[in-house]
Amino acid sequence: MAGVPKKSPSQLPWVLLLAAILIVLAAGTWGAVRKIDYAWRWNRVPQYFFYHGEEAVKIPFDGRVEQITPAGRKTSVRLLSEEGTAVTVKVDKELLKVSEGDELFEGDTVGFKYRWRLGPLMFGLWTTLWISGVASVLALVIGLLTGLCRVSKNLTLRGLAAIYVEFIRGTPLLVQIFIAYFFIGTVFNLNRNVAGVGALGIFAGAYVAEIVRAGIQSIPRGQMEAARSLGMSVFQAMIHIILPQALKRILPPLAGQFISLIKDSSLVSVIAITDLTKSGREIITSTFATFEVWLTVAAMYLVVTSLMSQLVFYLERRFAVSD
Amino acid sequence: MIEATNVVKVFSGRSVTVRAVDGVSAQVAKGEVVVVIGPSGSGKSTFLRCINGLEAFNEGHILIDGVDLADRKTDLNAVRAEVGMVFQQFNLFPHKTVLENLTLAQRVVRKRSRKDAGVKARNLLSKVGIAEKESEYPSRLSGGQQQRVAIARALAMDPKIMLFDEPTSALDPEMVGEVLDVMKQLAREGMTMCVVTHEMGFAREVADRVLFMDEGKLVEEGTPEHFFTNPTEARTKLFLSQVL
Lengths: 323, 244
Description:
The complex is a heterodimer of chains A (323) and B (244).
Chain A: H1 12-36, E1 50-58, E2 63-71, E3 74-81, E4 86-92, E5 103-104, E6 109-118, H2 120-150, H3 155-169, H4 173-187, H5 192-218, H6 221-229, H7 234-264, H8 276-287, H9 290-319
Antiparallel strand pairs in A: 1-6, 2-3, 2-5, 3-4
Helix pairs in contact in A: 2-3, 2-5, 2-8, 3-5, 4-5, 5-7, 6-7, 7-9, 8-9
Chain B: E1 2-12, E2 17-28, E3 33-37, H1 44-51, E4 59-64, E5 67-68, H2 76-82, E6 83-86, H3 98-108, H4 114-127, H5 143-155, E7 161-165, H6 173-188, E8 192-196, H7 200-206, E9 209-214, E10 217-222, H8 224-229, H9 234-243
Parallel strand pairs in B: 3-8, 3-9, 6-7, 7-8
Antiparallel strand pairs in B: 1-2, 1-4, 4-5, 9-10
């Protein structure tokens, strides 16, 4: 804004330098891969996203094929039961297995239909997303409560919260997942999903708690004093004055934590939850396309985390109205 | 209205303990305007903050309308709702509009309806002369406007007493007048006020009584005439010779 209209120096040389560095890196990678003589088989990957599968169409009763009429690329088959009820099913033209007048028993195959289906990478992605989502909500709830305890005047609450945070931050997530599944999961008879999501949520909750605590402490004391001077209780002041402001400030670090959580969720594959990472490993055992699959899996994580960053960027701008 | 007897407030750090307020006794009657002056660090702000319980004091009693703040059974939130406070740094809620700043506590603490709170708030905003800013956020207002909103926010609770903690100290000089004008108007309307300030002109013009504090102690009190023309204590004379 400051007055002097100065001609900004051209950014072009730096853009060119950036491009040159990226090209050198890409060329280097390509050269290195050539050297180890790896046969790339990218064509094996797409089928693990979507594949075209056959689905059998079966007759729901004992009866016979009354009529077969072509309908474009499909064929319409009219089936009549011994009691006289009729149903019409459609199958693919080339995969019709019956002819008019055939007598069929219940469950016999009339023909097949082609259909697009989701491959293991998509199922893995879905698992990763819901595990991260549920764990994030859990982490937010735990983190908010623990963060409030951390700034509480009550020594017991403060102590408990501090011990929890120290304990979780001081031990590896992988070990926590093993403890959650093999020890706590055995004692309380938890299934692997509950143990996995629980471990992730409790882990991230400790970090969220520290973020929340820092956020609350970053709000000037005067805000709490002003709220109290108007007769509000500590709770009312927290709800209406402190937390809304703190939440706005902690949005960026909170987003970073949730992005970490999405990545950390790959560790639940060690307790045999088929998330994106485990799907990738399973695909490699059947394709040996190690490089392609891991690169694809990495790209998929990157897409999810980038979308998350964009979302937060949007929220930040919306919250900025009162600044 | 306010009766303080032997109030002591000690701040204890690791190595030093400071008796910020050291046995102060003072009264403010209904409808009276009392101005507290003194050098910085004299404990006058701390004393003011003790009066609405923002600062818990270690010894003594403060009675607000007969309710003792030192009594553990006293509901401090209820007392604070009756005692308005205006801060040096305004302390408006930056995430709320001007109107919301005025209506929030009315609705949360006084349980007024959105409509009633809004009517009250708009009346007060036009009284302090910023009715047109009701939907702005505080950051868009000048310091003087923010402080006037802060005064209106405190008044919205219908307080019996108003406390001012150096309300003009953080303002640019050209904005001091507009805030003092609002305070003078309040005084004329008979509001009970206790004002910590460095504005000697305000003290002389508006105060019914002036208290002079130094090093946590109440050194001298009297009418403005007595205080500014004929102070008895040596410390008061020294202070006045420095500021006037």
